[in-house]
Amino acid sequence: CFLNLFDHTLPTCVTSLQMSPPSPRSFQSAEDHMWPNAIETAFQRFGQNPDTFPTFLEIIRMLPEENQNLKLVTDSFKRESCSQRLQNATPEVLQFLLNLPDLPSPRAQTRRKALECFLSWIKFTNVPASHIAQNPLIPQCFEHVAHWDDLSETATDTIVEVLRTCSMDICAYQPVIQVVLSHLGLLRSKFEMQLSQNTNAEDLDSLRQLCRIFVEVGECLVPLVLTQSTDTEVASILQVILKCTDLPSREISSIPLEFWHRLADEVCRHPETDVKIDQFQGVYIELLSASIHQCAMSAAQDPFMADDEVLAYRQRMLGLVEDCMAVLTPNTALEHVLKSLFDEEKKDELVQEAHFFVLAMVASSAEVRDSSVLWDLIQSLPTLISSAPSSASLDFTKKTAIELLGNLWQWVNSRKDFLGLALVMISQLLVPDLSSSPAHELDRARQVQQAASTAFKHICVGGKLHLEDLLPELLDLYGVTMALPIRMHLSIVEGVGSVVASLNQEDQLRSGLEQMVAPLAQGLDSARQKPHLLGEILDRLIVIIKQLHMTESNAKATCIGHLLCNTLWPMIRQCLHHHPTDSKLVEKSCQLLKDSMRCVPDLFKHHLPDVARTLVTAFQQHQHSTYLYSAEVLARTYAKDPENVPVLTELFNQLSGIGLQSLVHSEDKLEEIRELAEARESIPAILQPWAFTMARQLYESELQEARSSLAKLQAELQEVPSYALPKKKHGRPTHELLQHRKLGEDEP
């Protein structure tokens, strides 16, 4: 309301208002009917004098923004009422902006404010197409961007917002689209000129603005692009966007990614025989080449030290490769990447590494063909992978080559002669001791070994039916690599375990499992007082058991059941006995118990009483919620058998009694046992009512704290004058309301 009071000092008032804005509470207390014609009054008083235009435009710009500002505390009715008034005033605001350029030499500040005001109102409401198409600000925006002056960034935002408005209804906004397309030639010339020059930081800023505009044009015209793909204007827009994708700036090249994904999705809606896909194959082949180029690591830094931003960018580029495969088909994309690789194989290692990185996705999706030239690459990989450590770029290329080989497990497994060779080659990378390596080489070697262990797992899991003859060597590798970091060795455990689990002969299966479990059992005895090592041993055992899938009772199931009952169950019981307070170790032990039970439930059933006693004893020592979850697994697995009901009933009764005592003794420290009280899904039915009782006590204790806080607030409000307090609709101050209500007593 300051406009009514200080109309002659408007600029000074607005400046003061901006420097020291009023608090949201003052806006909250304003009544909605105090100024019903605020915008009309502002136009009459301050929209006539050019000296006040900059400040007046600033106010007009802020109105729609502040209406949508949820930080301003007001009710929905006032906000909606204000929004409706602003929308009703839209024609008057746009007409004012339309006439503004006709003024004699408007000041630069006025131009900026007018552009910002226009942008604010376009974001706020759906401006009619006629108002946008006839507005001279649109051509001016293109001129600002082309000349890259101080208003180019705001002009870019305005053009982008106009295009987003047009995309909501292309037919209705066809006049606006025609205006935009008529000015694209100016920006295209600017774009080509900057590409022909050596780009610096300022040029990249200008290219970013141009890229945003062309990409937004493309997204707006996706339906037209599909129907008019041979049109010269459409082709030129696609070429500009394609060149933007291949720019060296990660920020700029990331802008078109969503457009390419949307276009690929629209193209692939047609049948594969449709001519539309053929028309776009050329574009997506070029785009695939750009993707490979963008995936290349910088030679200016150690690729092993690349930060998360670089790695995330490469993953986004793989998403673009996936869009290319959707249009081209995986095998066509594979042929193109291989051709590009062989054409540039004499370039530096990082270019080769980028091809390997892309091939890891493309080739894994392609159909295995004996005639593919990919076999030439696969047969050449052992030479690269077996090479001695050298420069960082060569080692990084070797690491990616190993990852590529792991992703090609379908191809490798189709040729048994190469399968064994690939595993032997990868195994050699896992055996060397790196403890004496220099610090700067150790991290590289570890990353190479991590890639080798993952590739080993993929090849073993995929070719497990063909690796029976190599099982002795695989078991030897399993033993000699036990000292590797646990993350690497778990991949080896999974690979070897999958081969052992696929054996059909009982003697071979028993021998393989014993050779895998025996060193772990020995380690369990020697590392009894080392929880960290015990946890790693349990992790390995869990991975082994997960490979065993028994669907029927047979000799193979009997062999596995004998191992689980006579070897693994004693190990689990020993861990729970010696480390009842270690929550991580308890959780892993119960996880191994669950997997063992579900693997051979019929054979493990005989140990049910022993398992129940162990859980009760352990839960009595320490109330881990994991024990309750294990009891639930027992019930779900064995409750259907009437013979097991007495054991399960006794188990639940004892766990309920222990839980009841624990909750009673912890009544004054409920926060410390929140995990136990919240384990509703794992608590037996007999224990759940007490859990709800404790939850009620927890609620009542929190409610008591809330009452205390409100009492303090009431005392503070007593000292505040009533006129300073917000009013309710019936006019009673807040502190009187607090006095006339007994807090909490009428709450449900």
Could you explain how this protein is built, in words?
The protein is globular. The chain contains 39 helices and no strands. The protein has helices at residues 2-5, 10-19, 24-28, 38-46, 53-67, 76-88, 90-99, 108-124, 129-133, 137-147, 152-167, 174-195, 201-220, 222-227, 232-245, 250-254, 257-267, 275-295, 308-328, 330-343, 349-365, 374-385, 392-407, 409-413, 416-430, 439-462, 471-480, 486-501, 506-526, 531-546, 555-578, 583-599, 601-604, 608-621, 625-638, 645-665, 674-678, 688-718, 734-739. Residues 1-31, 680-695 and 720-748 have low confidence and may be disordered. It is mainly alpha-helical and 748 residues long. Helix 22 crosses helix 23.
List keywords for this structure.
748 residues, mainly alpha, 39 helices, 0% strand, globular, disordered N terminus, disordered C terminus, nucleus
The average pLDDT is: 80
The major sheet is characterized as: none
How far the N terminus sits from the C terminus, by CA atoms, comes to 44 Å
Portion in helices: over 70%
- Total strand count, please? 0
Number of helical segments with 4 or more residues: 39
Instruction: Please give the radius of gyration in angstroms.
Output: 36 Å
Question: What is the molecular shape?
Answer: globular
Strand content: under 5%
Please mark out the parts with pLDDT under 50 across 5 or more consecutive residues, or reply none.
Answer: 1-31, 680-695, 720-748
Structural class comes to: mainly alpha
